[in-house]
Amino acid sequence: MTRRISKSKRFYMMNPIIQFFKFIYLSIKIMLIVAGGHGGTRKANY
To answer: Where are the beta strands (DSSP E) in 1-46?
Structure first.
């Protein structure tokens, strides 16, 4: 189990592409949430 965990961690650390895609996915998710939450109020104020 410990070896598997370390292997997966090593795989993650050795593959910055996966982290990059994860970061993009999270940023898009956050932007969508922000847009959905603040889009209506912005339009109302505008």
So the answer is: none
Domain boundaries, the chain: 16-46
Which single residue is written with the structure tokens 């922000």?
Answer: 34
d(CA 42, CA 46): 6
Longest dimension (CA), the chain: 56
What CA–CA distance (Å, rounded) separates 46 from 40?
Answer: 10
Q: What is the pLDDT of residues 1-46, one digit of tens each?
A: 566 667 777 776 778 888 899 999 999 999 888 887 765 555 555 5
pTM for the full model? Answer: 0.45
Q: Which residues contact 12 (CB under 8 A, 6 or more apart)?
A: 18, 19
